[in-house]
Write a structure and sequence with these properties.
Elements lengths: L10 H22 L4 H4 L7 H27 L6 H26 L6 H37 L7 E4 L5 E5 L4 E7 L2 E8 L2 E7 L3 H9 L4 E4 L2 E3 L4 E6 L5 E5 L7 E3 L1 H10 L1
Helix pairs in contact: 1-3, 1-5, 3-4, 4-5
Length: about 270
C-alpha cells in the first residue's frame, strides 16, 4: 500500500475508468437487482431502467472530471497506492452524494436527504467495489509483469572522466563516500579490509544521477555518502550536522540541513 503508484499519467489512460465503471454499474443493476434497487427506483413515473441509466450518466460525468484532475496531479505528485485508494473512495463518496440528491428529487420530499444518503452509500460502495478492485488488480499484475520482463540493472557503477573515458568500475556497496575537490572528485572505497581513494577529474553534477541510482545519497554540496557506512548523525552547539562513519580512518563529513531529513530516514 505504501509503494509507489505506477499507472498511466495521461488522461487517455484514465478513460477506461470513466467508461467501465458506469457501464458496470448500470449492467450490474439491470441483471442482478442488488439490494432490491429495481423496486426502490420505481418512482417519479419512470421505469427503473431510466433511473439506472441516469445514475450511470451521473457517475460518468463525475469520473470524467475527477480523472481529469487526477491525471493533472499525478504528473507532478508522487502518488502512492494508499493515496490512490483514498482517491477511489472519494470518487465513490461524491457519486453517492449526487445519487442521493437525484433520488430525493424523484421521491418529491417523501424521504429526508440524509436518509436517502445512507442507502446511496450502501448502493454505491458495495456495487463499485468490484470494478475498482478488478482494475487495481489488473494494474498490479501489469506492473509485476513489467518488472519481471525488465532488463536487469547494472550491478557495478562506472565512472567516466570529463572526456567520457571510463576510469573506474566498482561495486557500489564498496563506496563509502564521494567528495568534491576543485575540478576533481575523490572516491573513498573499501578494497578488502583497506580503505582506498581514487581521484577523478569530473564534477559532482556529472556523477549525481549515476551514484544516486546505486544507493548513494547527497548529504552536502560537496559530498555523496553511502548510508550503510554512516554510524550516526550528530549536531554541535553551533547547529552544524556531521555524519560519523563506521570506519574511523575516514573523517566525519558535513551534512547540510536540506539533506538531513532524507539521510536520517535511511539510517
Amino acid at each position: 500500500m505504501n509503494t509507489q503508484l505506477r499507472i498511466g499519467k495521461t488522461y487517455r489512460s484514465q478513460l477506461l475508468y470513466v467508461v467501465l465503471l458506469p457501464a458496470f454499474f448500470a449492467g450490474f443493476c439491470f441483471l442482478y437487482d442488488p439490494f432490491g434497487m429495481k423496486d426502490y427506483y420505481q418512482v417519479g413515473g419512470m421505469s427503473f431502467g431510466f433511473h439506472f441509466l441516469m445514475l450511470a450518466c451521473i457517475l460518468l460525468a463525475i469520473l470524467a472530471l475527477t480523472r481529469l484532475v487526477f491525471s493533472a496531479l499525478y504528473k507532478h505528485i508522487p502518488f502512492k497506492w494508499w493515496h490512490y485508494v483514498v482517491w477511489c473512495i472519494g470518487e465513490t463518496f461524491v457519486f453517492a452524494c449526487f445519487m442521493a440528491m437525484y433520488t430525493t428529487l424523484f421521491y418529491a420530499g417523501q424521504y429526508n436527504y440524509f436518509v436517502v444518503l445512507s442507502r446511496s452509500f450502501k448502493f454505491a460502495y458495495l456495487i463499485l467495489i468490484y470494478p475498482y478492485l478488478f482494475l487495481c488488480m489488473m494494474q498490479v499484475i501489469l506492473n509485476k509483469d513489467a518488472d519481471l520482463n525488465a532488463e536487469p540493472a547494472e550491478t557495478l557503477v562506472k565512472f567516466y572522466d570529463e572526456h567520457k573515458r571510463l576510469k573506474l568500475t566498482i561495486d557500489p556497496s564498496a563506496i563509502i563516500c564521494i567528495q568534491a575537490d576543485a575540478n576533481y572528485i575523490i572516491l573513498r572505497y573499501m578494497d578488502a579490509d583497506r580503505i582506498k581513494e581514487f581521484m577523478l577529474r569530473a564534477s559532482m553534477k556529472s556523477v549525481e544521477h549515476t551514484v544516486e541510482g546505486h544507493g548513494l545519497v547527497r548529504c552536502h554540496r560537496s559530498y555523496f555518502v553511502n548510508p550503510r557506512y554512516v554510524k550516526m548523525l550528530s549536531k554541535n552547539r553551533e547547529g552544524m550536522i556531521t555524519a560519523e562513519l563506521l570506519h574511523p580512518e575516514v573523517a566525519s563529513i558535513p551534512v547540510s540541513k536540506q539533506f538531513y531529513q532524507k539521510l536520517s530516514e535511511l539510517l
